[in-house]
Amino acid sequence: MATKIDPPNGAMSAPGKHYFMLWRTIFEVDLRYVPIKPIGKGAYGIVCSARDANTGAKVAIKRNTNVFENTTDARRTLREIKLLRHLFHENIIAVKDIMVPSSKHAFKDLYVVYELMDTDLHQIIRSSQLLNDDHYQYLIYQVYILH
């Protein structure tokens, strides 16, 4: 679960931001979003579910850590955001918001807000559930209708 915490290192809270601890990682998010719980961890960071206080909708917030540390990773992150902002399809996750950092000088983590999906293809492939021909047909159909 997400636990609300005071700003790190005794610092003043950045305007319009609040802080949460998820999987021993500090999330600095806009006041608009209230993290609920962590839902995934990957090479680029941690993803948590959250509630958008303005709309009441559930969203996913991806914290890309040290986004400028590696040029290749920075380019991949930029590519992901640019592509997803132009693709509109019910089976492709949509970028809802990109949070502005509290300070340009301390900007190292990027927070991207996505619509919250029930699952992803990686979880389906990793699951112990055996996939049958209907599953394969459905997945192929979804890829096909993207054209």
Describe the protein:
- The protein is an alpha+beta fold.
- The protein is built from 3 helices and 8 strands; from the N terminus they run ββββββαββαα.
- The protein has helices at residues 71-84, 121-126, 133-144; strands at 3-5, 17-22, 25-30, 33-41, 45-52, 58-64, 95-98, 110-115.
- The strands form 2 sheets. Strands 4-5-6-8-7 form a 5-stranded antiparallel β-sheet, with helices on one face.
- β4 (33-41) and β5 form a beta hairpin.
- It is globular.
- The mean pLDDT is 87.
With helices defined by DSSP (H or I, 4 residues minimum), what is the helix count? Answer: 3
Count of beta strands: 8
Low-confidence regions: none
Shape: globular
What fraction of residues sit in β-strands? 25-35%
Strand order of the largest sheet: 4-5-6-8-7
H/E element order: EEEEEEHEEHH
- Which percent range fits the helix content? 10-25%
Q: End-to-end distance, in Å? A: 39 Å
Mean pLDDT: 87
**Main pleated-sheet profile:** 5 strands, antiparallel
- Tell me the Rg in angstroms: 17 Å
Structural category is alpha+beta
